[in-house]
Amino acid sequence: MTAEALVVRGLTRRYGRREAVSALDLTVHEGDVYGFLGPNGAGKTTALRCILDLIRRDAGEIRIFGDVGRAARRHVGAIVETPAFHNWLSGRENLRLACLYAGLSGDTADREVERTLERVGLSARAKDPVGGYSLGMRQRLALARTLLGKPRLLLLDEPTNGLDPTGMREVRDLVRSLALTDRITVLLSSHLLAEVQQVCNRVGILSEGRLKAEGAVSDLLAADVSVRRTVEIGADPGALRAAVATMPEVTVEGPGGEGRLRVRLAGIEVPELVRRLVAAGVAIESVLPDRRNLEDVFVEVTSGKPSS
Amino acid sequence: MSRFGLVWIAETRKLFSRPSAKVALVVAALIGAAGPGFLRFFGGAGITVNGGDLALDVSAPNAVRWALVMRGFFVAQGFLALLAIASLAGELQAHTLREDLARDVGRRTALLAKWAALAMLSAAWLAVQWTVGCLVGFAVHPATGSVAWGDVALGYGAAFATDVSFAAMALAFAAVLRSPAATLLALLLGIVLERFLGWILWFAREFALANPELPPLLTAIVSAGPYLPSAAWSVWSDVANGSPGQAASWAALAGWTILSVVVAERTFARTDVP
After folding, report:
1. Each residue's pLDDT tens digit, A84-98
2. Which of B13, B94, B102 sits opposite A54 (nearest CB)?
3. Contacts of A55 in chain B (CB under 8 A)
4. pLDDT average, residue stretch A57-62
5. B40, B155, B160, B193: most buried, per Cβ within 10 A?
6. Minimal C-alpha gap between B99 and chain A (Å)
């Protein structure tokens, strides 16, 4: 069994009478890339700030690799919302200052700065003032800063915020590589569900300050909480509608993507449907089962209704 | 090296890299040169005060002392206030403090390192001003005069102590108010109101001395002038003139410094870092 990298128990933070985070329990295992999901205002950033002791918590316990308090933060590198830098200093100088805060100095700090700059591909621009960096470069510099001192756990809050598709892909690949190559445990908070589905092996879904679902991505996708099953079929629409009209287990929902028709199945499996359609003389070009994705799970969990 | 030492180095590097700190050191050099320059101008101007010639000690030590007086006219305090605000309230607002505190660094350590960095800036200012003042002073004035070098040196030392105290109070304001603009406004307003209070107390004390039958409590209140922050922060002036300064003002300097540090530390420990 893998060790527990981050354990949060009963974390509560109130703003006045409103509970931004309410009795949150969360476990991230060593080696996980854990997706921390939730709609705006769900309490994700508040929870991360509590974990980092940036804001006070009203209740709860936080352990990181078994340590609590300041000792726990020794294991952590973090990006919280938009990374901030001293814009008049170069990227390298910003990292040197961060090294001192991380307890590194002298040659060790110099080596660490160059290693992390190299890791995020910023060595060539390291001497330029950060004020002139693009958003993507700032994000990569922030990742370099989190890697100083070789943390065992990265807390990344929306690390691809504001990036163009290329920048998002770069950061996503970097996070994946950090987890796979450097074996760093990652907690990734993001709105981008497709991104989380690609990168993370486990997710927790937060809504109204509470953890509503948690588990392996594959388990959540496999769990058919809704009874629906839809299929998109590429065929002549007229022939398809006529054939489906004779099948009480099949209902036409409407147009699907790229000229396909979307049908709902109840009590009939896809191979049987295909067999009957072929028997009815329908020339089928494609059959696309509508797979659940993380977005469906997210909508179901946060709204309490099956996603349409 | 201890973690405090490393964070102190970080804060000092950061502070000295700020454009306003660089300007402060240039101003320190200019004031260092201006002291001897003004003394040369006024020393030969034949100024008459109360019907008699103004007998100025035209010498290098007095010139360096003049530079200290010029610096004390809110110039150093202005820069220290700006830099203290930038290093705490400014960093809170710019979120750079969040990045530092996400590390395993205690808030007390970070706060004291910022204070120590401001002390370093004050020391650098005084060193630059002293050096430039001496160089120009020796070039244009006799090396000695009736003003003793020792008194001037002690005056510079006392100015360092008052700077450190003032920086602590500026940090306390910044920790409480958290907004750079609000902190600057509150500091300016506080200084003006405190000076105003000082004048009222001075007038009231004159009245009290002429009316010995006043209640002891009232007499004590009107005698509180030397305990005010402005009296504490100008104690260097007495020292540079060869006087040890009022004990009440030294006590006030220590008291206001401790109070400021405690307020800043307690407030900062409970602050939600955005």
Report:
1. 999 999 999 999 999
2. B102
3. 272-273
4. 96
5. B155
6. 7
A232-259: per-residue pLDDT in tens? 899 888 888 899 999 998 988 888 877 7
Interface test with A, best of B99, B112, B268 (most A CBs within 10 A): B99
Range of the domain at B209: 3-269
Question: Which residues in chain B are contacts of A86 at CB distance < 8 A?
Answer: 14, 17, 96
CB A93 within 8 A of CB A84: no
Question: Using one digit for the tens of pLDDT, what is the confidence trace for B44-69?
Answer: 666 676 666 666 888 999 999 999 99
CB contact under 8 A, B272 and A83: no
The highest-level CATH class for domain A229-291 is: alpha beta
- pLDDT on residue A227: 47
The answer to whether position B222 is within a domain reads: yes
Across the interface, whether the CB atoms of A81 and B273 are under 8 A apart is answered no
> Which residues of chain A make contact with B10, given a CB cutoff of 8 A?
97, 100-101
Dist CA B161 CA A158 (whole Å): 46
Residue B103 to residue A49, Cβ atoms within 8 A: no
Residue B274 within a domain: no
Chain B positions contacting chain A at CB under 8 Å are 1, 3, 6-7, 9-10, 13-14, 17-19, 94-96, 98-106, 270, 272-273
Which class would CATH give A4-222? alpha beta
Query: What's the structural domain count of chain B?
Result: 1
Q: Which value does ipTM take for this structure?
A: 0.89
Is residue A112 within 8 Å of residue A78, measured between CB atoms? no
Is A229-291 the same fold as A4-222?
Answer: no
